[in-house]
Amino acid sequence: MKVRERPPGSGEWWIFINHNGKRKAKKIGRDQEKAERVAAKVEAALTLEDLGFLEKKNIVMPTFGDYAALWLSFIEANRRASTYDRYSKTLDKHILPVFRNRPLDQITRGEIRNFIVEQSKERKPFIFRDILSSVFRYAIDDEVIKANPVSGILKSIATRKLTDTVDPLNDADLNLFLDTARAYFREWYPFFLTAARTGLRLGELLALRWSDISFNHQISTPEGIEERPYLYVSRTYRRKIFTPPKNNKDRKVDISPNLKAVLLEHRICEKKKGLALGLGSEPELVFNREGKVIEQNYIRRVFKRILKKAELRDMKLHGLRHTYASLLLSKGVSPVYVKEQLGHHSIQITVDIYGKWIQSNEAPAVNRLDGETIRNLSATRASK
To answer: Less crowded by CB within 10 Å, the N or C end of the chain?
Structure first.
């Protein structure tokens, strides 16, 4: 029986058991004394069992609800607050009412398949697969069950493509939205233009600082020196907490000339605001309310008011990110560039979500296969 901090310096304490040829590791938490107490109790119980003082009892199979709670505690301690919130709500609303009291080893692949198929009629099925699979994997790690009934299950289900769930604005509607914001909600026009011209997530926009923007960045090209302003995404904001961006991936996002001009004008206004607030300069945050961070629900309400004023259909603010990506791809921009701008984990995610907007300006590639045949045919005819 050993108690160790893993990895060293992390503050996370584990117990490691090596008993009768079987090895097991269990994370206890950030309390070393608690880990040592647990280790002592486990060691004592194993010793009594070996000496025959404890009778081995029939093991009662835990329910899905039991392990869902354990897994969710792990998520709360180790993942982003937004991830925990999304998983917790999905479990409570959709999954636990169906599987809560079922023993883990009695839930079949067929039941899971039918559940995911039913859910996929109204929402993306992937979150249900991921949560169900994670709970079963957690139980496998504890050697409660031997197999994960969720593994590979979506391969046999004809689910909707991610592309079908994305409904962005077209060029005309986006221009109408931005014109309405500039005319009737001028204070918020820089915010929504930045969202539309960079594709940043809402939390990334709210966490953006002036120090993250490089207005005068230049690069060397074969044609000479080219101005390439950008903003640097290194954090996000949600529910009063700043955290690293999604996937823990910092990135540079290019700024268009029009957006640069609007942001520079916005900065002048912010400097005046900073003097009025007694800050001596502009507030640290590019977008703020009286120098303080804007809460997500507040800006969502502003977004809805602009949509209504412009007489546009209702949509989520995240739709501006979809609009940014779809418009770039429809204009022939490389999916690799769009992937980097959006901060996707892989190019496959970009293609899966926005595949139908990817354009190619080249002649059909299959024509190249005829090249040698056509040349040979022409040469034959010329010789005759």
So the answer is: C
